[in-house]
User: Which sequence fits this backbone?
């Protein structure tokens, strides 16, 4: 159990376009989902935290108008990179905190590799 | 601000040898996590350490936690090539929207040579 999926697993887009990444918890409900980005050979950087039905909380330095997060249901959160540019190319990983599980363990998705040309 | 530091950041070792990766964190935290990441992949959960003195073992990996020293170790015994990966530790940071943020260390890139 506790499987988190992401779609797409990789995407290549032209500069200026928008890209939507989906994060789904497949077999549990997740009140909270997290979005991370990871540059090559670096650690994970938390971008934002989202709760179902409320606005996301963004980390300092993350542009909320550029990285739009929608947590539509207890099993789905989406990250939209608007007007993407080459510097947005990165590995984006989501995680989901399992509702009702006292330890609030985060389960990580497989990641989405974004390349902006 | 909670900081998590790992050392070494890079480790190249021979098969069959033992080694330890260290993870220090700057403020009190309830839980410490160890993850493995293979190239191009996401994180795989290895261990969750919940209390002072906790020790967990899985195969050739053993993790321990000393909350007083704010230190966790990941010990590798008789390393094999399949253990080559990047290892991250993380601790629970501040609560946000009802869940704990994770603060990650920089990662330790482990290469095991035949």
Assistant:
């Amino acid at each position: 159990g506790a499987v988190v999926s992401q779609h797409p697993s990789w995407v290549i887009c032209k500069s200026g376009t928008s890209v939507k990444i989906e994060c789904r918890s497949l077999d549990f409900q997740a009140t909270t989902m997290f979005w991370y980005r990871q540059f090559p050979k670096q650690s994970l950087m938390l971008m934002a935290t989202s709760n179902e039905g409320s606005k996301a909380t963004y980390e300092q330095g993350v542009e909320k108008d550029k990285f739009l997060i929608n947590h539509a249901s207890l099993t789905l959160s989406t990250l939209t990179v608007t007007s993407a540019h080459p510097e947005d190319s990165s590995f984006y990983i989501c995680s989901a905190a399992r509702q009702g599980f006292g330890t609030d363990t985060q389960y990580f998705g497989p990641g989405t590799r974004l390349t902006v040309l | 601000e909670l900081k998590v530091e790992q050392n070494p950041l890079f480790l190249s070792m021979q098969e069959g040898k033992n080694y330890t990766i260290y993870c220090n964190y700057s403020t009190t935290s309830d839980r410490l996590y160890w993850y493995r990441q293979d190239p191009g992949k996401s994180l795989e959960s290895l261990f969750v350490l919940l209390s002072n003195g906790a020790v967990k073992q899985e195969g050739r990996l053993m993790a321990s936690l000393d909350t007083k020293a704010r230190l966790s170790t990941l010990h590798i015994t008789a390393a094999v090539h399949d253990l080559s990966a990047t290892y991250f530790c993380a601790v629970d940071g501040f609560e946000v929207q009802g869940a704990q943020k994770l603060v990650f260390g920089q990662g330790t890139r482990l290469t095991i040579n035949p």
Summary: The interface with chain B takes residues 31-32, 34, 41-44, 46, 49-51, 54, 57, 93, 95, 97, 103-111, 113 of chain A (CB under 8 Å). The mean pLDDT of chain A is 91.
